[in-house]
Amino acid sequence: MNTHTFGDTTVLLGRSMKHITRSLDTIITTAIMPVAMMLLFVYVFGGAINTGAESYVNYMLPGILLITIASGIAYTAFRLFTDLKSGIFERFQSLPIARSGVLWAHVLTSLVANLISLVIVVGVALIMGFRTDAGVPAWLAVAGILILFTLALTWLAVIAGLSAKSADGAGAFSYPLVFLPFLSSAFVPTGTMPGPVRAFAEHQPVTSIVNTIRALFTGQPVGSGIWTALAWCTGILVVAYIFAMVVYRRRIS
């Protein structure tokens, strides 16, 4: 972004953040479902799942963090759809501002809101017994992966928000993304799955991301898995951004 675009985005980001601060219930709601899942899996199902010597809350937290992000980006699609229907985009068109600044404001707002939700979820996990050997570099690596994953999914949410025919449709696209961690190594080892499911689980993006975060939390070598995780996040981000800008130009032309 050039200086003009950066300045416009900053102003529009302030507008979007005011909506968040005035309705903190969206952040709380985003965090409630993952926390409820964490309680259910740890205290109900955890005793029946063998993950070796590792405590189950440690094992499944990376997957819960990704579900938190997948839940949170639904609100981005909803807010974007609402702005479109309110006519605010037409008003922005009449002003000398960078067109992409509107989208970037929504994306950065999503990033901030999701980071707050992630902090809440990690806090609850600590109360439930989550412990980690990760040092500062490992935590920074985890944060970097989660930020990249959030940006990738948020640009997918932008496409949904711009393309949806109804408010419900704008948010509903996130359901498959929330479900995807269940078909990965997030909650059970992939080796326990039947053949076709195992093949899918081992070659979809969530598994590589979950395994990388889990290794960082436990202080284990991440190997080439971190590059696979970063490649998935970056690839999704680039493709989603390109398609989002194409859809945006068509909507405002």
UniProtKB/TrEMBL annotation:
Name of this protein: Transport permease protein
Compartments, record wording: Cell membrane; Membrane
InterPro entries, A to Z: ABC2_TM (IPR013525), ABC2_TM_bact-type (IPR047817), ABC_2_transport (IPR000412), Nod_factor_ABC_transporter (IPR051784)
Predominant location: membrane
Organism in which the protein naturally occurs: Amycolatopsis suaedae
Pfam families: ABC2_membrane (PF01061)
Alphabetic keyword roster: Antibiotic resistance, Cell membrane, Membrane, Transmembrane, Transmembrane helix, Transport
An example molecular function term from Gene Ontology annotations: ABC-type transporter activity
